[in-house]
Amino acid sequence: MALPLAPVAAVALRYGAVALVAYAASRRVHTATIRQDGEDALDAVPEGVGAARPRDRSQVNAEARWRRIIRLGASGPGLEIDASALGRVTFRRV
Predict the structure, then answer these.
(1) How big is the CA angle at 66 (ends 90 and 64), to the nearest 5 degrees?
(2) pLDDT (tens digit, 9 = 90+) per residue, 21-52?
(3) Which of 6, 63, 68, 94 is the most buried (most CB within 10 A)?
């Protein structure tokens, strides 16, 4: 009995394309530096989402923080997740 290779080849081509894109993206990412003042700013963000629009500037500032502890069982091992983000969008007429 003959094996239908066309569907298998299509799936292999699709996974190969995804692997090629992932490899190319990983080669373009540079090593980032860790700055302590940036770490301190992210640690100071309160939990939740907030936004501000100062009247003296034409910009919008936003901040967000999400902290959770996930445990496996009542006294099992846990994992703490702390995600923080700061953002700024500036508008300027040209």
Answers:
(1) 15
(2) 999 999 998 888 889 999 999 999 999 999 99
(3) 63
Buried b (16+ CB within 10 A) or exposed e, 56-83: eeeeeeebbbeeeeeeeeeeeeeeeeee
Residue carrying the six token digits 């530096």: 33
- Is 62 or 3 the better-scoring residue by pLDDT? 62
CB under 8 Å to 81, separation ≥6 — which residues?
Answer: 66, 67, 68, 69, 70
Tokens of 40: 């301190």
The 78-90 sheet, strands edge to edge: 48-52, 59-71, 78-90
